[in-house]
What does this fold into?
Amino acid sequence: MATMDTIKVTKASTSRRGNVDFSKLAFGKVFTDHMLVAEYANGAWGLPEIVPYGPICFDPSMATLHYGQTIFEGIKGYRLADGTAAVFRPEDNFKRFNRSARRMEMPDVPEEIFLGGMKKLIQVDESWIPQDYDHALYIRPFMFATDEVIGVSPSTTYKFMIILSPVGPYYAAPMRIYVEEHFVRAAPGGVGYAKTAGNYAASLHPAAVARARGYDQILWTDANEHRYVQECGTMNVFFVLDGKLITPGLESGTILEGVTRDSVIKVAGDLGIAVEELEIAVDELSDMYNTGRLTEAFGAGTAATIAKIAELRNREQVMAFDPENAPVADRIKQILTEIRDGKTVDLRGWMVPVA
Ligand code: COI
It folds into this structure.
């Protein structure tokens, strides 16, 4: 099996790094000079390789294009205060990736390829790590079915790849969202907990409807009654109620098990903020807002980090939150940023060195 030192690297003849304006990075539009590729066939993974970033070639019958057997992860790499490069909690994304793989009837990707390949790729493109506040190197590992057949069955061949993108903030301003009562993101027994492309494809139309109505995103609710909160757009969601943090629990399997979600819960615990993971009824949120008990709302995700919600609409009711007065979200974001920048003690070893 490959180790980080044996991964073959073919360097790009020239770097595009100098052509990129790092002061104007949008999310996910610029990619680094190299990418990692590994192929699965005959029940085994071949040796991964790092090659110049560029288009890939495939047959029109490639299974992924037809039935969506594909999964991905989102991870971020940072430049620490001591000048070294590190990745935030990559083992957790690695484990979630393989949980997604099993749900989608795909093979597990070995740690040497996922984590070893990621570290090696970042070493090769280390100069692409942005330095500015709220900026990072976004790491996108993904796997897709490559059998050339249009019968509906699990592919026997797969490609695993990692690409890297220097990114700025996902949401530039606090969000306006509304409670979704028509469309459904995930139902129990479905694939809501898996990071698979179809979940995101299915969210595009509801999100477009939201934008046409002047909103940034939607708050997903349960498939049966549209009564209980699931997640917000592409993020997990948190509320501050009576000074404590509440977020939907994971039992239903309809919510993505977010690494940032888990980090928020742990940092809140360190700060002495009580956290409850529970079933949250939208109408209860409305009641709590009316009585002044609900004081903050925010999303949490790798891409978005902590994204404050300025307005949450539940039918005719508008719950407004002041983004300038969100002490819980601000404090948690500050601690997470300090950990990611290597400016505070990393108690749990979340920052994994690239070297
Ligand atoms: C992430 O937060 O990393 C995501 O994958 C969400 C989105 C960019 C698809």
